[in-house]
């Protein structure tokens, strides 16, 4: 743009932004009209506070799901919760959830048949039950701290990589990380049946519950906040029975996530200044996938 | 242009006469081969030369005259000058040597043009001539490297001057056939052998070699026909024979003998050397083998060896058992999966148990087997070594089995883990496009995949440890076999004859020549001494190494390590089917 | 026969001996720098010191004798295979060039290159460690393509003389090459 007022720029020949013509201008010459094409905040979205809170509720409820799962595991580890009770409760919740799911998705368009669902359930149960003795001995020579650290990492990976925009079908990495963590945790439990119950529980919490929640959000938008709030309250209550301090912390975290963070987002939206213009923006296309292989 | 005259040293003090030799085509140089003395009849000389030319295919001609003044031969000078009219040539050389002088005088007479160049005592222009003295015998016998026909591309190019000199001298061997005791029509001075190296033994050997070769060829053809019987070509037999190093060595030796016993005469130098190398190394091999036999079968060493062998195998098995017990505990403080550890450990222990009982079953027969196997050493040391290698392979079969089990298990785990890791990340391997694509899996696929991934991941250290230990054991065995194979290969391919020739007759294998300045008197032609530069030992090895079945590691060290890491089976000393130079 | 003093690239004294046998035959001998006594002393002393330290801890006299043996063998190998005493270039017009280097032990290794194979003799620049040095080189013809150079044979490799010495040899060589 410094070349704008060049000495030998005759006003008779207008400058054109083409490369195929020889023009009496230096190569880096740009016209005065260059900045006229500058535009700001082209595709910016204007958020409403309660809409953001509603979406953030999903994050909060996933966090509370993890907390609830950990609480259940703790009770199992302390043998205060018998595996049969957990299994019964799990069965009950599964049947309830399945009924709700079917009721909501009345117009099934070429989806899965009941037989396929039953088959999947059979595979889950058979494999988990068959492998639970193996899983039981899997980490017995690994130190407990290592197992805890590994589980914590994996649950964090689950929370980070969870597809919050589209929870169904669950993302591979998030589901796998959660399952890995639950296998690690379950292998520390005292018996094979415990392991089986814990894994079933993990399946319900991490794989099936997001599907139900997604359908709930689609078909019955009014029920979704209530479900999220219910889960959050439940997990806080469950944690409170274990350690009140932890429950307080979780409650604070949930409140921050649902109320404070959306507020911040909406407030800071005013300061957004995104410029677009007729230039090539530098974009970094770096394929990071080869680091993962 | 400078005139070069290659002059044989033996003619330095010859009597006066005619110079016989050859003008090199395209070069300003002449090779003097001999001096013909007086008295001679010119017609006879011409006939003699044309006969020789027909025999040796070298364009021999009379180059000029040579005068060596002696007492009482005064009129010789003018007579020699007149000779040029009798033998019409384009150029006529007149060499003369003054009595008591070291240098020669040289005069070149162009036909029709009188004296063109004049070097000598009185002449001023002495720079035009170089005398290169050479040792006729050594030049005749030596082979300049690289040999002709060796490099296919250079065959068409014009041979260099030195090569022409060597060729000329070597081909005119019939000229040197007459020795000083011959009473021919002409008296000739050139290099003369001190009589043929003839003895009755050499003659007898020569006579006997022809039927011997025929017999050998017949036996070999019989053997080949025996090998071709369809029974031996069935799959299992062929597979086993290709794996046993003794059989490979046998086929290799058969090839060798076929080369040696072929009744055709060796066409060129390389083929002759190859035959000689094979012959000598075969003899040395057999001699070493016989030495081994004479050592082995004396003082009851075989039975002592057998007595050592069984306890040694037992001992190895015991050590392995202890190793397995150690692995089944907590080896080096590593935390392994106890259940899998126990299963693997018991499996391998059972194998060793089987092995020990097998050895004990064999033990009464081992001495007998060794006795018969030891006889194979009379075919050569290489056979004995090959048999030893096979015996070692058979005795360490359990280690090989362990290695294979460990490697297969480990390989399975690695492949499973790598594909499940892709599933873990929600990716899959696209076979058609040879790349990793993202893919959305079903819920049950994800669940089972993760379950298996976790299990495999936690069981990997146990398997890897077993794999590591047995791979190390296997590598030790392979290293031992490799050393044996390398030594066998060394004996097979070492060019013993060429080495001996280089050691005892260094001039026979020439890499080139080297020159030494003989005399430097101002106003006299330059005299150089041409000596033969013998081939370096490393070049001898490179030229005359018998091509053999390569038994060097097929892949580079990096590839080997990669294979070891992935758990592929390695056979680093496997012989290739193709010959390599 | 003339003898001149020059220095090599490290500043050590070397001598160039030119011998003219005839108009078209000259011989150049470059004597390499002498083996320095100090270096021999340093190497020998260091080997013996190490041996003595090992001996001090192990109390094994075989260490000392092996150290003596190692130094002796090392010295022999050095003078037989490494240390070059002088290098000779014999150039004979229309016949060829002979390069020979004789080792300190008297061993000689000689190569003769025929004139028909030689394309030219030049002074070349070469990068040696961190500096650029000059060296005399023989360019060999490519047998398949007469215009091209197939190999470069560097001369005076062990005693690396400086440019002024090389120029002298180069001039004489070119004189002879021009004659034929």
UniProtKB/TrEMBL annotation, chain A:
GO terms for biological process: GPI anchor biosynthetic process. It is found in: Membrane. Keywords: GPI-anchor biosynthesis, Membrane, Transmembrane, Transmembrane helix. It comes from the Eukaryota. One of its GO terms (cellular component) is glycosylphosphatidylinositol-N-acetylglucosaminyltransferase (GPI-GnT) complex. It is a multi-pass membrane protein. Pathway: Glycolipid biosynthesis; glycosylphosphatidylinositol-anchor biosynthesis. Pfam families: GPI2. The chain crosses the membrane at residues 49-74, 86-104, 116-135, 147-165, 195-212, 224-242, 248-266. Its main location: membrane. Belongs to the PIGC family. This is Phosphatidylinositol N-acetylglucosaminyltransferase subunit C. It comes from Megalops atlanticus.
TrEMBL record, chain B:
One of its GO terms (cellular component) is membrane. It holds the Pfam family Gpi1. The chain crosses the membrane at residues 278-297, 343-362, 369-396, 402-424, 445-469, 475-498. Keywords: Membrane, Transmembrane, Transmembrane helix. One of its GO terms (biological process) is GPI anchor biosynthetic process. It comes from the Eukaryota. Signal peptide: none annotated. PANTHER family: PHOSPHATIDYLINOSITOL N-ACETYLGLUCOSAMINYLTRANSFERASE SUBUNIT Q, PHOSPHATIDYLINOSITOL N-ACETYLGLUCOSAMINYLTRANSFERASE SUBUNIT Q-RELATED. This is Phosphatidylinositol N-acetylglucosaminyltransferase subunit Q. The lineage of its organism: Eukaryota, Metazoa, Chordata, Craniata, Vertebrata.
TrEMBL record, chain C:
InterPro entries: PIG-H (IPR044215), PIGH-H_dom (IPR019328). Pathway: Glycolipid biosynthesis; glycosylphosphatidylinositol-anchor biosynthesis. Pfam families: PIG-H. GO terms for cellular component: glycosylphosphatidylinositol-N-acetylglucosaminyltransferase (GPI-GnT) complex. It comes from the Eukaryota. Residues 88-157 form the Phosphatidylinositol N-acetylglucosaminyltransferase subunit H conserved domain. Belongs to the PIGH family. This is Phosphatidylinositol N-acetylglucosaminyltransferase subunit H conserved domain-containing protein. It comes from Megalops atlanticus.
